[in-house]
Amino acid sequence: MHKSAVVFTLLIALSACAGGDGNLPPVESRSAQDLYLAAEKELQTGRPVNAGRLFDEVERLYPYSEWAKRAMIMSAFSYYDAKRFGEARAAAERYLDFYPADEDAAYAQYLVALSYYDQIADVSRDQTLTFDALQALRETIERYPDSDFTKSAQLKFDLALDHLAGKEMDIGRYYLKKKHYTAAINRFRVVVQDFPTTRHTAEALHRLVEAYLSLGLTEEAQTAGAILGYNHRGTQWYQDSYALLTGQGLTLDPAGDSWLSRIHRQVIQGKWL
């Protein structure tokens, strides 16, 4: 198709987005309010992409108006609703650039975080988006601590942390199964040190007991068992570690001066030096 024909087709399509009526005037001749209300109608009738495009037109044609300010945040919401996460994030970030202290700034930041969070893949895949989500969620919590979105952001932050810990556990279990004990220990260590509040910590400590016993490092195994017994005594992981250690005539008491011993002194004994 000839380039001019393509441009003409796109213009026709955009005009149709303005309300589904080919008799409507071109967007350039319509007022900011008219475009904004048309965009709201598109959103209400289940056409969020069309809505986002019309909100963008308000911003483009009337950049210094109050309608443009409102359209910017609504564009972000519309694209997010359509699962067009990149466009949603771009609109929300523009809003934050222009109005970082506005009453809707917290919502814009939350939309940035959601645009990453809603794309988090299962633990078998790359977790770059999980890290991006954590950073954006942290900004929501720290920059807007009193907003209506802080509680939800904190919950999602904790879930994202749990997700990352699950990724480490998945890899660690694989190495443990293959008897690559040192590699497994490194993964379980990350969970214990970096994600201690997640639901994976108890299992990570038990897997450390297994891996250290397999390497003949009984002091490290005992210390992992001691931490497990202190923080997660009611779990099956503690019962399994107890059986493993006592079966070899060992106690669940800290021993030696490993990284686990330092955690035991700091977290359980409260000794930081």
UniProtKB/TrEMBL annotation:
Belongs to the BamD family. Residues 31-224 form the Outer membrane lipoprotein BamD-like domain. GO terms for biological process: Gram-negative-bacterium-type cell outer membrane assembly; protein insertion into membrane. Part of the Bam complex. This is Outer membrane protein assembly factor BamD. It is a lipid-anchor. It is found in: Cell outer membrane. The keyword rRNA-binding does not apply. Residues 1-18 form the signal peptide. Pfam families: YfiO (PF13525). It comes from Halovulum marinum. CDD domains: BamD. Part of the outer membrane protein assembly complex, which is involved in assembly and insertion of beta-barrel proteins into the outer membrane. InterPro entries: BamD, BamD-like, TPR-like_helical_dom_sf. Keywords: Cell outer membrane, Lipoprotein, Membrane, Palmitate, Signal. Its main location: membrane. GO terms for cellular component: cell outer membrane.
